[in-house]
UniProtKB/TrEMBL annotation:
This is IDLSRF-like peptide. Keywords: Disulfide bond. The lineage of its organism: Eukaryota, Metazoa, Ecdysozoa, Arthropoda, Crustacea. Signal peptide: none annotated. The keyword Disulfide bond applies. SMART domains: LDLa (SM00192). CDD domains: LDLa. Pfam families: Ldl_recept_a (PF00057).
Length: 155
């Protein structure tokens, strides 16, 4: 809700949420215009992303996300720092390349992920199915990836 206060770092200054990421710094240190914060503000909450990733892993086993993020996503994303860290990176990384850098992904994994996103954007269900994403999951996966695409993740 736009009238709820947002507390600037340091805790003395609170601003209205509508002033977040409006192009004019309102916090003393300009934190309200921090690109990571502004990206995160447009994305689904980290908790929602984390629970979505968690539910995919719970339904399909600890290596399921390898289909999206490559070999480093084995073992419930442990090599990437775990579900929470990946959720934060998805929330804060402005672009897919930044996401790759933040998680030290291989170039080939970033390119693979990009092709998955492009398949979603272009409605290329065949490509998603070729990864082993089942019909029953396509809706969820598409919905989730579209939210990222819509906030500039592929730019």
């Amino acid at each position: 809700m736009p009238y709820e206060p947002f507390r600037c770092p340091g805790g003395e200054v609170c601003i209205s949420i509508q002033y977040l990421c409006d192009g004019a710094p309102d916090c003393p240190d300009g934190y309200d215009e921090n690109p990571r914060l502004c990206t995160a503000a447009k994305r689904p909450p980290v908790e929602e992303t984390a629970s979505f990733l968690q539910s995919l892993l719970a339904s399909h086993g600890p290596n399921y996300l390898e289909k999206l993020f490559g070999t480093k996503a084995r073992n419930a994303l442990k090599p990437l720092g775990g579900v929470e860290k990946v959720a934060v990176a998805l929330s804060e990384s402005q672009t897919i390349d930044q996401f790759g850098d933040n998680l030290h992904l291989l170039r080939s994994d970033v390119e693979h992920l990009r092709s998955v996103f492009m398949a979603v954007e272009n409605g290329d269900i065949g490509m998603l199915k070729s990864l082993g994403i089942k019909d029953s999951e396509l809706g969820d996966v598409k919905f989730f990836l579209e939210k990222l695409v819509n906030t500039g993740f592929l730019d």
